[in-house]
């Protein structure tokens, strides 16, 4: 092995470094933070080889001036020795509803960095929850009871005028809704979030958003405006309509009948006094141009009814009604139907018992997509192709006559004759309507209270062929900073990677959803646990999962089981649960801890996690693996099922192993022992029940082997090798000129390639990744996929969209489901070889795996790979390449304040197949190595 750039520690003390990347509770300058002791983190930047922190200091102040003057009136941590680049706030009580400023510096090699740039965050209600009353319109309409008729009410516009008594120096607003809302001050929108305040079980918890509105305030009279739509609270939700869940089986009004709004603005005057303007019965309310607005059904907008200046001074609201306290609409008891039967429940106002600051990055417009083509499959029907399947909305730009009706429909795919394919949307109508006002200058509209999963937009109602820029795609998702990159010599593989990242983006709408297009869009736990580690490679998902893990815990059943999806809007404290889905309660905290290094992801939920494991043990005291909940098993496998009991034994073992590891990280020795004992018992039961003397598993399926290997059922190296060989043989048996031979479903696919590599079948793993045959990721790419499909056979050349019996498309057939995209975890961790050796990548495992010289492949075997991940310590970048002379060129950049363990073969893999691996430690900096 030849090091082209030698490790050089001598320069360490000479080179300056900086302290940067300040985050608080996994967010960059958040608005709305109600943790009394938030976690503060930073990273080091600099070129010095071996750059490592020896101490840090944090200053926190109530104003920028004070911070700059070094007057830390809230907290001065003092010089604190240690390598950790994070700390919990330990200063004076943080002020409520106020901006807070902070900066940090670090020491390395005896030298202090300059202070970081000052950053600020705005606190929420640290001194208690918001106390403003929720208001509504007076709702006298009868409850919607017709399952077969759509009921789509108009959003409400709220308005309030106020005059601050003195000179305002600061104004901070907290707002929430039962429903989704947009807030305005003097005509200007507060913040840039979509769908605030997000989806929670509103009967247990709701979030409020915080805005610094100081700059939006005017002298004298001021106007607050807000629009509130049904959203998740009372709109059509998930598959409720399809399966007949919800009040009167309608699928809507799941949490309540009447949306409500809550706002409080905290004004601080120049004399130090303060005042709160809050929602109450003095606000006015009316309907506006939106005549309907629903997540699943779409939005309707009559531009002739626009109320110019409605949220600004001087607008005449005398015709508007008076708002009422939400509670005054009274009790509304209705029968609620779901899987567990019927129960009369309250659908009148219930104030959420817990109101907290929204803990994650909001959904934002992240990118705009220009249309790449327009087709006209039949006269007057124009289909815009945005070139990419995604989730979001469009900006419609057109010239129309007053009253002209334009209809927008959305689809992920087209039928062979060019028509929009909408069968797979099931009960989601996904149709927006715009009625023109007839502005000669043209008009522009974007729906605000709905979203769709789509690539194609069908536009009808135009008087002539619209131009390409009549439709622009707005890509929406939770604004988690993206953190990965992957490229290699095979363009199809690069597209697979992009497809997975796009599918994550399409499903990161406030929660990890299964799919963004059909009438589902739920936080399916099985999907989330399979994909969590991949998600954490592609984005900084700490804050995002901080939110969702609360929803997950809020949805735990009375028995203590994690549910099949979270939030769980159906059931009465009951929920469907099941093997591998419920395990999200253990697997997701573990995955997010590994990626971020922050143990709060399990310490905050430890009691619920322990209760779950005990409840599961109670129903299977001998730990044999008995059917647990719904029998999804290896969901969407290709006629190669794995028994439910087997899946349960595998996942129970995996969860017990992870619990043991997390218990150990907390120093809980007794619990470590307990879970280790369980694991030993389950392994023994596995050997007795499933393992044959010849090392095969009965009943046999590809996923049975994959799960035995991945979930820890098989620990003996010889037995593992046998299982891996048999797995490879099973894939081989089913492969052919038109078949890869893979049969695995959701559970088996994620660990398939990792387990093949781990048992000496790396070439097979690489060939599956690169295959264009059915079923494979490459088959999807070959057929035009820009996202990951729900099923291997979502579309086949043979059966089109309908599957073998022709009915699949109208039943369950999404083109944007991330579960199979979990192959990207293996692409980054194994093929490129970047993985956390310690939580948060403070120690990095660099261990690339190369296809061998005689790898057989349908196409040129991958000959180079380049990848990166933005870890909490900064970018980890690697690349490897088979050079012309057969040698291996390897390059890596290791970020400051970490170390990396690099494992490479002693001789180039293209010169000698079984060369011994050599491991060495790399210090922060850039490294270039040639293996001859
Ligand atoms: C969802 C899934 C989910 C599954 C569970 C489907 O409808 O889209 O991805 O995991 O149901 O059975």
TrEMBL record:
UniProt EC number: 3.2.1.40
Domain Alpha-L-rhamnosidase concanavalin-like residue range list: 378-477
InterPro entries: 6-hairpin_glycosidase_sf, 6hp_glycosidase-like_sf, Alpha_rhamnosid, Bac_rhamnosid6H, Bac_rhamnosid_C, Bac_rhamnosid_N, Ig-like_fold, Rhamnosid_concanavalin
Boundaries of every Bacterial alpha-L-rhamnosidase N-terminal domain copy: 166-327
SUPFAM superfamilies to which the protein is assigned, alphabetical: Six-hairpin glycosidases
Catalyzed reactions: Hydrolysis of terminal non-reducing alpha-L-rhamnose residues in alpha-L-rhamnosides
Chain intervals for the UniProt region annotation (Disordered): 911-932
Domain Alpha-L-rhamnosidase C-terminal: 833-906
Principal EC category: hydrolase
Residues of the Alpha-L-rhamnosidase six-hairpin glycosidase domain: 483-830
Keywords: Hydrolase
PANTHER family to which the protein is assigned, alphabetical: ALPHA-RHAMNOSIDASE (EUROFUNG) (PTHR33307), ALPHA-RHAMNOSIDASE (EUROFUNG)-RELATED (PTHR33307:SF6)
Protein name, as recorded: alpha-L-rhamnosidase
Organism: Haloferula helveola
Lineage, broadest ranks: Bacteria, Pseudomonadati, Verrucomicrobiota, Verrucomicrobiia, Verrucomicrobiales
Gene that specifies this protein: ramA
């Amino acid at each position: 092995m030849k090091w082209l750039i030698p490790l050089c520690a001598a320069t360490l003390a000479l080179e300056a470094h900086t302290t940067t990347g300040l985050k608080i509770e996994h967010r960059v300058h958040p608005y709305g933070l109600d943790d009394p002791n938030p976690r503060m983190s930073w990273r080091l930047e600099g070129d010095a080889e071996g750059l490592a922190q020896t101490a840090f200091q944090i200053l926190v102040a109530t104003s920028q001036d004070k911070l700059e003057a070094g007057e830390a009136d809230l907290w001065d941590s003092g010089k604190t020795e240690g390598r950790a680049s994070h700390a919990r706030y330990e200063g004076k009580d943080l002020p409520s509803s106020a901006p807070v400023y902070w900066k940090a510096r670090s020491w390395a090699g005896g030298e202090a960095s300059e202070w970081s740039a000052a950053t600020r965050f705005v606190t929420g209600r640290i001194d208690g929850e918001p106390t403003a009353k929720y208001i509504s319109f007076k709702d006298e309409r009868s409850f919607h009871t017709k399952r077969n008729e759509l009921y789509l009410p108009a959003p409400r516009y709220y308005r309030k005028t106020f005059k601050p008594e003195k000179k305002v120096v600061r104004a901070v607003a907290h707002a929430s809704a039962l429903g989704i809302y947009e807030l305005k001050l003097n005509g200007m929108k507060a913040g840039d979030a979509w769908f605030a305040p997000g989806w929670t079980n509103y009967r247990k918890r709701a979030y409020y958003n915080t805005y610094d509105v100081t700059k939006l305030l005017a002298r004298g009279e001021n106007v607050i405006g807000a629009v509130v739509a049904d959203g998740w609270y009372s709109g059509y939700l998930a598959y409720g309509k399809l399966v007949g869940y919800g009040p009167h089986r309608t699928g809507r009004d799941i949490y309540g009948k009447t949306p409500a709004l809550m706002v409080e603005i905290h004004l601080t005057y120049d004399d130090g006094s303060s005042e709160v303007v809050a929602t109450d019965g003095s606000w006015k309310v009316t309907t506006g141009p939106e005549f309907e607005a629903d997540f699943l059904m779409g939005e309707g907008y009559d531009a002739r009814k626009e109320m110019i200046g409605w949220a600004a001074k001087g607008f005449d609201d005398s015709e508007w009604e008076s708002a009422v306290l939400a509670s005054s609409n009274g009790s509304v008891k209705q029968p609620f139907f779901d899987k567990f039967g019927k129960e009369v429940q309250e659908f009148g106002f219930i104030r959420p018992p817990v109101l907290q600051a929204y803990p994650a990055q909001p959904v934002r417009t992240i990118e705009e997509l220009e249309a790449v083509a327009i087709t006209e499959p039949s006269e007057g029907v124009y289909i815009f192709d945005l070139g990419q399947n995604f989730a979001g909305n469009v900006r419609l730009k057109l010239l129309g006559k007053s009253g002209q009706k334009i209809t927008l429909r959305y689809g992920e795919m087209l039928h062979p004759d060019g028509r929009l394919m909408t069968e797979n949307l099931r009960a989601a109508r996904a149709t927006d309507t715009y009625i023109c006002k007839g502005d000669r200058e043209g008009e522009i509209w974007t729906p605000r209270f709905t979203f769709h999963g789509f690539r194609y937009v069908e536009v009808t109602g135009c008087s002539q062929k619209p131009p390409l820029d009549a439709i622009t795609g707005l890509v929406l998702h939770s604004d988690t900073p993206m953190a990965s990159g992957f490229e290699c010599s095979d363009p199809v593989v690069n597209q697979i990677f992009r497809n997975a990242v796009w599918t994550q983006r399409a499903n990161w709408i406030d929660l990890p959803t299964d799919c963004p297009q059909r009438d589902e869009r739920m936080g399916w736990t099985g999907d989330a646990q399979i994909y969590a580690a991949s998600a954490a490679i592609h984005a900084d998902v700490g804050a995002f999962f901080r939110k969702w893990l609360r929803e997950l815990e809020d949805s735990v059943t009375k028995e203590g089981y994690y549910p099949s999806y979270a939030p769980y809007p159906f059931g009465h404290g009951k929920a469907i649960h099941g093997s591998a889905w419920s395990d999200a309660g253990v697997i997701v905290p573990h995955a997010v801890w590994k990626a971020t290094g922050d143990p709060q992801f399990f310490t905050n939920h430890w009691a619920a996690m322990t209760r779950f494991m005990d409840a599961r043990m109670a129903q299977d005291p001998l730990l044999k693996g008995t059917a647990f909940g719904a029998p999804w098993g290896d969901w969407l496998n290709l006629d190669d099922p794995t028994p439910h009991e087997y899946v349960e034994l595998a996942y129970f073992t995996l969860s017990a192993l992870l619990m043991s590891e997390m218990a150990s990280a907390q120093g809980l020795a007794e619990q470590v022992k307990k879970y280790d004992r369980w694991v030993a018992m389950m392994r023994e039961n596995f050997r007795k029940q499933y393992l044959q003397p010849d090392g095969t598993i009965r009943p046999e399926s590809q996923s049975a082997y994959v799960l035995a290997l991945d979930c820890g059922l098989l620990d003996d190296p010889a037995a593992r090798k046998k299982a891996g060989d048999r797995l490879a043989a099973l894939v081989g048996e089913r492969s052919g000129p038109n078949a890869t031979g893979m049969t695995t479903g959701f559970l088996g696919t994620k660990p398939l390639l990792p387990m093949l590599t781990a048992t000496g079948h790396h070439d097979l793993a690489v060939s599956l990744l690169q295959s264009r045959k059915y079923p494979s990721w490459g088959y999807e790419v070959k057929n035009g996929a820009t996202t990951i499909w729900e099923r291997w056979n979502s579309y086949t050349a043979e059966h089109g969209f309908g599957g073998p019996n022709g009915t699949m498309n109208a039943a369950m057939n999404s083109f944007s489901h991330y579960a199979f995209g979990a192959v990207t975890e293996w692409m980054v961790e194994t093929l490129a070889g970047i993985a956390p050796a310690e939580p948060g990548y403070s120690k990095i495992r660099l261990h690339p795996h190369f296809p061998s010289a005689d790898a057989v492949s349908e196409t040129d075997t991958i000959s180079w790979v380049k990848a990166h991940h933005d870890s909490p310590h900064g970018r980890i970048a690697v690349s490897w390449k088979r050079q012309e002379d057969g040698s291996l060129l390897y390059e890596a950049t290791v970020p400051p304040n970490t170390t990396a363990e690099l494992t490479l073969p002693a001789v180039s893999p293209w010169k000698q197949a079984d060369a011994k691996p050599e491991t060495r430690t790399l210090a922060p900096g850039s490294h270039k190595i040639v293996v001859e």
